[in-house]
Hints:
The chain is of the alpha+beta class and 784 residues long.
Amino acid sequence: MVVPSLKLQDLIEEIRGAKTQAQEREVIQKECAHIRASFRDGDPLHRHRQLAKLLYVHMLGYPAHFGQMECLKLIASPRFTDKRVGYLGAMLLLDERQDAHLLITNSIKNDLSQGIQAVQGLALCTLSTMGSAEMCRDLATEVEKLLLQPSSYVRKKAVLTAVHMIRKVPELSNIFLPPCAQLLHERHHGILLGTITLITELCERSPAALKHFRKVVPQLVKILRTLVTTGYSTEHSISGVSDPFLQVRILRLLRILGRNHEESSETMNDLLAQVATNTDTSRNAGSAVLFETVLTIMDIRSAPGLRVLAVNILGRFLLNNDKNIRYVALTSLLRMVQSDHSAVQRHRPTVVECLREPDASLSRRALELSLALVNSSNVRAMTQELQSFLESCPPDLRADCASGILLAAERFAPTKRWHIDTILRVLTTAGIYVRDDAVANLTQLIGGAQELHAYSVRRLYSALAEDISQQPLVQVAAWCIGEYGDLLLEGSCEETEPLQVEEEEVLALLEKVLQSHMSQPATRGYALTALMKLSTRLRGDSNRIRQVVSIYGSCLDVELQQRAVEYNTLFQKYDHMRAAILEKMPLVERGGSQVDGEAKESKEAQLSETALVSTEPQASKLLDLLDLLDGTSGDAQPPPPLDPSPGGALVHLLDLPGAPPPPPSIPNLRVFEREGLQLNLSFVRPSGTPALLLIMVTATNTSGADVTHFICQAAVPKSFQLQLQAPSGDTLPAQGGLPVTQLLRILNPNKAPLRLKLRLTYNHFGQSVQEIFEVNNLPVETWQ
């Protein structure tokens, strides 16, 4: 006898009426016990009611797994009321991880073969929701037959089920190619929308399907033109736009079909211009259609005038009051700045205005785009705007803004003085946020500009006297005062206001830096060295400097203490050599950002030779990678360190007459290029160890955005032995900044043809990217 239980409506009311969670659990446990008892007794008339209550309990987050088999029984029932609840339960309680889901395959197949539309719709919905790869293979032919059924209700659901099947089993694409061409003649917008989605999935997963559907581009153009020119329709229009969902889907499909295909792109050019000029953007629906049109124009081989029109549309988006539309416009312009720089450059004032947006995501995107728009013609104006933004920007943007300004100044500086002034202003405004190499770059710049030594030391002294909290600025100022302190005291610089500085003031300022609690150990080291150098540049007595240096001989910081002890020894034992040892550093010739190719190759070769001589290079890291080519290489060992003969490396480096002839040069190879990121391989085979190949991997970034978290991993077949050394960094600055290099050592004792698989992981344009590819075209010289 079935234990009486609550109706579904009564159960919902009782659960909602529970005042505490304990009362709710008590009600649910009691009712679940009734449901279990009913399932055990096998009451067929009330089984669907019990399962309906169990599904409500499942929606509340309580366990309901014991109802899975009841779903199968209800699906097999001939009654529609049972099938409806059974299929709903299957969609909620079953998935691919449950073996029980395979048991309903025959029931779905039988229901699809029936002529009852409601039952066919239930079966198709269930299959498209939880159908596994095995179910899709078994039921693909039944779904194909339903694609051409007279009923639009069944056809629409069959198309959506076919989309799910293609996503699960891409090899089923050949089955659905013929019906798609017929379905494109449908007038029912729901079926047409599903068909366009199905064709899009087919083209993305099958090159053969992509080639096949390029023939229907004129028909797609005709459908979209009809939608654009059709007047208001109560059934399909949204905010005055005729079926924007279907328009967006067709535009996405046209973008795929026209990519890298001249004929298809030419066919859709006129239509895209019509959509771009006639779409109303006062509502979100029109903006969505217009944005998809812009993406399609930029992705196909469109006419130059059409691309300018697309950029202008994005420029209008920047003036929209909706923050989401402005963000989309900034992101799109950032991707287009490399291919259409001059067109994007026209909207530079609007982009700069977006820097002052209170929304952090908008200001960050505007900053990235502004940095990408800097060139030699606008560097002064853009740098001034960016420096103004740096003074008031949020702390989380200061590091990116300061780094971008420094890189732009390094690439496009019109004069050395302007370059120095720009870096000084950045250091003064956001010194603690600048990159680690800013101090070294500025000291190198000042050292190479002999005509600006007096100007630089006076500017830095004035900045240091005003503020000693910005550590990079203090370090550069201390270095410059130590090197050119005599020019500071002369006061003969015509480019700055007259400034009379006494020796005591300079020494007092450096002592203040040494004693300040804000000074880092590295900063104190700069100041101590500056004092020591001033002992040879000042005309007064050096006893005060000697006393300060001796104090730090017992400093707790080991580095500072060692430096002070050495300087004390220099005062006491080698005072006659002090002037020669502490003389000014020689001028440094600062090269441009564009490095000559041959010099770059020779530098990589020198790095490789250095790696050869060192038997245990520092920071080397042996990676235990999975052998992506031939399975897991569990017994792979690192290549044995080389044991060159004494003096062999010196003979080779000096190229003395008695040295053996150098090995033949191996041409470099570019193996990857995407959105400005390039990966080049250069090769060296040491003459002493012919089985060893050294590969220098060099990654460069010419795009408008930094590449961060860059990781390069490699794998080789089992017959090879691979050792990866630590990379030089994980960040590739935008606009051709410093590259990232990594050394690969491959031992090939059998001299077999080399195959190399690389995996790149990085973040670019705010997106995480992973690329895996195989390199099979390595030069023959790398293994013969």
